[in-house]
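Worked example 2:
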Amino acid sequence: MIPAAMTAAMLVTAVAAPAQAAPQPLEWVALGDSYTAGAIDAAGPEYETPRDGCVRTTLSYPRVVEAELAEQVHLRNVSCGNATIADIAETQQVPIGHHLPPFSTDPDHPFKAVALQLDAVSPDTDVVTVGIGGNSLGFGEIIFTCVQLGIGSKGEGTPCKDQLGSGMAARLERVSDEYEQMLTAIHGKAADARVITVGYPRIVPDDATACRFDNLADFSTVTPGDLDWLRTSVLEPLNTAIKSRAAARGDAYVDLYASSQGHSVCDKADGGNWVEGLLDTSGRFALVHPNAKGHANAAARVKEAILGQ
């Protein structure tokens, strides 16, 4: 039997013990382009009212991670469709929403300029994720040039590579330099924050002949030869540049390319594509962007990086 005096002392000690304070949520800022924001119907509906034209969607990876980590993070998502590296820290972007005439018009266009994405970062920020670079490289412009040139070649040869290939090294070098300057600016605003860079997923399959020529749900009239060039000389080097710049700063790099093997635009069997073509499988404009499955994959890897796993 425990003596009465000892029992009373134990009760006093238990009452007097201070309660454990709940851990503060990580202050997380998500920067990036449409591959972060969501931007297309296949990545969920827009969630912001009033709209600012950045087209952030409910199934984009920042929102998925926010929901899964719940009270562990406090998210400020300022990613924006059509953003370039310069829009992070140098220029005020004027978003376009879904306004892409003659293909589509946006009833709320024109939109007002939004603040620099970097304005959302402060000395109190704990984590910054950033997925950017494709628009600075001109990926959309390159795709549409390849579509146009492929019409005349009837699926043969590499007309896009022949026209644009000689200038790609210079483009990649410029993007790499801009990326380094952006990382410097982010660290300057939040010296103690963990910076996590996010690469781009696999878009073109290893076997480009798997893509259906003249099919808008794939790459329309881009030739198989040009698709191979896009994969090996545009997309893969862009990811390499991002990873290299991150490593030089000691920042984390989230590799979406390896994890999306077998889930390119053209891997349609059993709904295996994590990126849509020029049109999604429902016939809506997608312009080669990740769908909800692609964002779910990105969310899993970004969440691991945020938690330091």
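The chain has eleven helices and five strands. The CA atoms of residues 52 and 272 lie 32 Å apart.
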